[in-house]
Write a structure and sequence with these properties.
The protein is α/β, with parallel strands linked by helices. It contains 15 helices and eight strands. The protein folds into two domains: 7-53; 61-319, 2-enoyl-CoA Hydratase, Chain A, domain 1 (Alpha-Beta Complex).
């Protein structure tokens, strides 16, 4: 059963009525509700188009956080083959908020790394809601080093509210681990492409997304801080998150204009969760296109391309 967001309540009522009619018809074979149910379906489809035609930044935040969006594990299972997970940072522990390993993408050996939020209460707790601890970033560094050693392209899938801010994480060097991961992204001489599939929160996202090419799903977000966190700092009131979302320019469309990302991947009508297969196929096509764009470049050229990309950030916004 689809979970509806606050702004989708009118849609929930219409789709609920259509399902009620169909349930009555299933219970009574003599009842024909085809015409009425079809009319409600058409009304729901029209309303869905209207709701998603011009989402506000805050509503995009809500869609990006939808619990039914496909997660990192879903993408790995759908668009990669021969996935072999690699665990641990060889120092402290294995962080389940970060998953990664060797795989094939379009029959090409790659290293894939991403944040995994989990899909139900038990798995979300196990994966710490996708918020990595230092050992998660150190695991990513280890995997990127391995990819560089064997000449494997690195593909990262970003979906985190941010790095875990707990006391233990800080004691184990959270900021240093994030910095090392970001540094490794800049140093490896292999193609590195990233896709923001949900939330791209703060340094927790940058540590995986300092890439040659960065893409975002249409209704994903990418920002230095969450709207709630920003509102708490600026206005001392987290309820002003809508104003903060507007000011942060965290949508894929804004970030494409600013040159922070390189492409926006279209989502099905109503968001990625309404057609997961179509969404994952679109992400696969975008990854293939980004890797193709980098083919033929040697290690030095890839590193130069990546560094220059981030040195140039802000120039589009200033020019505009």
């Amino acid at each position: 059963m689809t979970q509806y967001l606050d702004f989708e309540k009118p849609l929930a009522e219409i789709e609920g009525k259509a399902e009620e009619l169909r349930a009555l018809a299933r219970a009574n074979a003599e009842m024909d509700v085809t015409e009425e149910a079809s009319a409600l379906d058409a009304k729901a489809a029209k309303l869905l188009d209207e709701l998603y035609k011009d989402l506000t930044p805050w509503r995009k935040c809500q869609v990006a956080r939808h619990p039914e969006r496909p997660h990192c594990r879903d993408y790995i299972e759908k668009i990669f083959t021969e996935y072999t997970p690699l665990a641990g940072d060889r120092n402290f522990a294995d962080d389940l908020a970060v998953m990664g390993g060797l795989a094939r993408f379009n029959d090409r050996p790659v290293m894939v790394i991403g944040h995994e939020k989990g899909s139900d209460t038990k798995s979300r707790i196990a994966h710490n809601f996708g918020m990595a601890r230092p050992e998660g970033y150190r695991k990513a560094v280890r995997l990127m080093e391995m990819a560089g050693r064997f000449g494997l392209p690195v593909i990262t899938l970003i979906d985190t509210a941010g790095a875990y801010p707990g006391k233990g994480a800080e004691e184990r060097g959270q900021s240093e681990a994030i910095a090392r991961s970001t540094e490794m992204c800049l140093r490896i001489g292999v193609p590195l492409v990233s896709v923001v599939i949900g939330e791209g929160g703060s340094g927790g996202a940058v540590a995986f997304a300092t890439a040659n090419r960065v893409a975002m799903l249409e209704h994903s977000i990418y920002s230095v801080i969450s709207p709630e966190g920003c509102a708490s700092i600026l206005w001392k009131n987290a309820e002003k998150m809508r104003e903060a979302a507007e000011a942060l320019r965290l949508t894929a469309q804004d970030l494409l204009k600013l040159g922070v990302i390189d492409r926006v991947i279209a989502e099905p009508r109503g968001g990625a969760h309404r057609d997961k297969t179509k969404t994952m196929e679109a992400v696969g096509s975008a990854i293939a296109a980004m890797l193709k764009d980098l083919d033929g470049k040697d290690g030095a050229a890839l590193i130069k391309d990546r560094r220059q990309k981030f040195l140039d950030l802000g120039s589009k916004g200033l020019a505009a």
